[in-house]
């Protein structure tokens, strides 16, 4: 089984961090292939960044189809481009937020997603509602710019821990979800410190992807995720004109 991990931002070190987390949990027969978008923002913080990251994400998914992959994971907790990717893919496509909150729902009645900036909190809160977890989950922002997670001297980890502690005390959280792909390497350490399940979206998405492939299941192509209708695309988007299925 081959699972493609696509980082929709252009920061290669974040891709490697996600790939390391994915390989740590992947089954022995699973190959993890990591890809970094070659166009778009260096980090995704809010709707504007997310919108401009989608073309690079779709390009990576499309261009790597010739090598083949059985499922793909979009390594951004905003589930950037997830709907578009599912619409032209014929393999399962997993997002970090959806995978993580579903996993947390197996483990706890109440949980808190701790993310980076307030603008991301609002976006993720909307996703949590969409995924049916609004009554069980709260989303908190720790006031950390995404790229500060790459800098050990930034104080980002202290801010993250402080917000987790508030979640445990004030929200009554029984589990914590790390709301950014850049936090993936901290899950085990934080779980040991706080004694509650700490869910990393990358790891959760990889295991869900393996399960779907093993079950022989993929995204329905009837209705919402039907393949795009062939039509011309113009200008800089001409290369995205639907010319057939991706897989």
What would you call the structural class?
alpha/beta
CATH class of the largest domain: Alpha Beta
Q: Strand-and-helix sequence, N→C? A: EHEHEHEHEHEHEHEH
Q: How many domains would you count in the coordinates? A: 2
Largest sheet: 4 strands, parallel
- Total of helices: 8
What's the helical proportion of residues?
40-55%
Strand order of the largest sheet: 2-1-3-4
Distance between the termini: 14 Å
Number of strands: 8
- The residue-averaged pLDDT reads 94
Roughly what fraction of the amino acids lie in strands? 5-15%
Instruction: Fill in the CATH topology of the largest domain.
Output: Rossmann fold
Low-confidence spans: pLDDT under 50, at least 5 residues? none
Radius of gyration: 17 Å
Question: What is the CATH-assigned architecture of the largest domain?
Answer: 3-Layer(aba) Sandwich
Which overall shape is indicated by the principal axes computed on the Cα atoms? globular
């Amino acid at each position: 089984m081959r699972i493609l991990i696509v980082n929709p931002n252009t920061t290669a070190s974040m891709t490697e961090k996600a790939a390391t987390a994915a390989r740590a949990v992947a089954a022995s027969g699973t190959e993890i292939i990591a890809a970094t978008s070659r166009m778009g923002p260096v980090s995704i913080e809010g709707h504007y960044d997310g919108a401009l990251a989608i073309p690079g994400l779709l390009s990576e998914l499309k261009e790597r189809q010739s090598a083949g992959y059985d499922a793909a994971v979009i390594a951004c907790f905003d589930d950037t481009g997830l709907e578009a990717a599912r619409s032209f893919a014929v393999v399962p496509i997993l997002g970090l937020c959806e995978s993580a909150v579903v996993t947390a729902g197996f483990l706890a009645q109440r949980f808190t997603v701790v993310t980076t900036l307030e603008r991301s909190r609002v976006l993720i809160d909307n996703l949590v509602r969409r995924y049916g977890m609004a009554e069980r989950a709260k989303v908190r922002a720790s006031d950390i710019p995404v790229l500060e997670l790459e800098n050990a001297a930034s104080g980002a980890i202290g801010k993250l821990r402080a917000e987790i502690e508030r979640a445990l005390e004030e929200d009554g959280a029984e589990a914590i979800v790390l709301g950014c792909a850049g936090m993936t390497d901290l899950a085990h350490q934080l779980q040991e410190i706080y004694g509650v399940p700490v869910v990393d979206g990358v790891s959760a998405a990889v295991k869900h992807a393996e399960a779907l492939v093993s079950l022989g299941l993929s995204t329905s192509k009837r209705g919402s995720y039907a393949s795009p209708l062939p039509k011309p695309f113009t200008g800089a988007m001409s290369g995205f004109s639907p010319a057939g299925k991706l897989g």
